[in-house]
Write a structure and sequence with these properties.
By secondary structure, this protein is an alpha+beta fold. It has two domains: 1-37; 42-159. Helices cover 18% and strands 44% of the residues. The chain is built from one helix and eight strands, in the order H-E-E-E-E-E-E-E-E. The strands form two sheets. The chain has a four-stranded antiparallel β-sheet with strand order 2-1-8-7, with no helix packed on it. A four-stranded antiparallel β-sheet has the order 3-4-5-6, with no helix packed on it. Strand 5 (113-121) and strand 6 form a beta hairpin. The N and C termini lie far apart (64 Å).
């Protein structure tokens, strides 16, 4: 035997140590992912300002704004897009440009659809609108609008 296929003891110990560390690292990573579970859903909130203008303009990707009741305004401008974390039993709040606020609360995310509640409150904190929605992830819709300046403030939401 020429000994070329034999690994010396220090090299074998190094190799075994490396394999052990790699196995522990993979095991810990898998365990922490299992403990954390799936991430909580988020809600993308887009605010649009609708007005009557001589030249119509509907933002790309928002064809539903051309249909009733949103077609009462022919020009829409995207004011902002933000992401809210949905928490079960605890409202996530977003201030709106007119001083009002939008509150989103997760009710259930155990099936393919995410069920949540949206509450629109005026600048004094009085409830203006409240609705419960069930939506699959990725679907966008326009649940509420409110008067704003010389037009309407339209809220678009999408579950992420």
């Amino acid at each position: 035997m020429n000994g070329s296929h034999i690994i010396d003891k220090p090299a074998r110990r190094s190799l075994l140590r490396w394999i052990g560390v790699a196995a522990m690292t993979l095991g810990v990573g898998t365990a922490s992912a299992a403990i954390q579970g799936p991430s909580a859903p988020e809600l993308e909130v887009t605010l649009l300002h609708g007005t009557k203008a001589s030249a119509s303009a509907i933002p790309s990707g928002w064809p539903e704004l051309a249909d009733p009741p949103f077609n009462a305004y022919n020009r829409y401008e995207i004011l902002s897009t933000k992401t809210l974390a949905l928490k079960k039993g605890s409202p996530s709040k977003e201030s709106l440009p007119d001083g009002s606020s939008l509150e989103a609360t997760l009710l259930d995310d155990s099936n393919p659809k995410v069920k949540f509640e949206l509450v629109l409150k005026d600048s004094k904190g009085a409830q203006v609108s409240k609705g419960t929605y069930s939506s699959p992830k990725g679907k966008r819709f326009l649940p509420v609008s409110t008067p704003y300046k010389t037009g309407a403030l339209v809220v678009g939401v999408k579950v992420l």
